[in-house]
């Protein structure tokens, strides 16, 4: 495993641990939001794997790279530093909008599924997040995310 792959895996593990701990503290009333937050590490690693897949076109890799950088960036629309793991909601929605755009263009669904590590079909998951995006991040943040992906 390359150093970059190790770093991505560590980031994935750190996000997952932070979100799990946060969800456990919040309890059952937080269940619906927790369901979405627990997708965050899977979406990150999916973007990372697609970014490193030679079958993905260069122009798509620019968009994927932007999504990966957004996950690492301490400055974003809903900052994790101030809000804790709930701050990953915008990262999740951005990742899903990026993946949706790639599906509309020219990425193969088979390639997407090959790299997906979530439990539910990736297309179903993308649709669920798209349907809940406004509730997850609010209309103002969603508008800014949409403009970032265009």
Features:
150 residues, mainly alpha, 75% helix
Any overview of this molecule?
The chain is mainly α and 150 residues long. The protein has one domain. 75% of the residues lie in helices and 0% in strands. α8 packs across α9 (139-149). It is globular. The N and C termini lie far apart (33 Å).
Number of separate helices = 9
Sequence of secondary-structure elements: HHHHHHHHH
**Low-confidence runs of at least 5 consecutive residues:** none
Distance between the termini: 33 Å
Which range best describes the helical content: under 10%, 10-25%, 25-40%, 40-55%, 55-70% or over 70%? over 70%
Kindly provide the radius of gyration, computed on alpha-carbon positions and rounded to a whole number of angstroms. Answer: 15 Å
Number of separate strands? 0
Query: For the residues shown, what is the average pLDDT?
Result: 91
Could you give a short account of the major beta sheet?
Answer: none
Content-based structural category: mainly alpha
SS strand fraction? under 5%
Q: Can you tell me the number of structural domains?
A: 1
Principal-axis shape equals globular
TL;DR?
α3 packs antiparallel against α4 (58-72). It is built from 9 helices and no strands. It has helices spanning 3-26, 31-37, 40-51, 58-72, 80-83, 89-104, 109-115, 122-137, 139-149.
């Amino acid at each position: 495993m390359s150093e970059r792959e190790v770093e991505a895996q560590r980031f994935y593990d750190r996000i997952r641990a932070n979100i799990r701990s946060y969800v456990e503290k919040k309890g059952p009333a937080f269940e619906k939001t927790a369901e979405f937050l627990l997708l965050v590490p899977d979406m990150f690693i999916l973007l990372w794997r697609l970014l490193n897949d030679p079958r993905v076109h260069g122009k798509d890799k620019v968009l994927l790279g932007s999504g990966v950088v957004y996950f690492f960036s301490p400055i974003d629309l809903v900052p994790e530093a101030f809000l804790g793991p709930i701050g990953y909601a915008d990262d999740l929605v951005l990742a899903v909008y990026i993946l949706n755009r790639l599906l509309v263009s020219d990425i193969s669904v088979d390639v997407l599924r090959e790299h997906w590590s979530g439990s539910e079909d990736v297309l179903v998951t993308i649709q669920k997040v798209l349907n809940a995006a406004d509730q997850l991040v609010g209309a103002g943040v969603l508008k800014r995310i949409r403009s970032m992906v265009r």
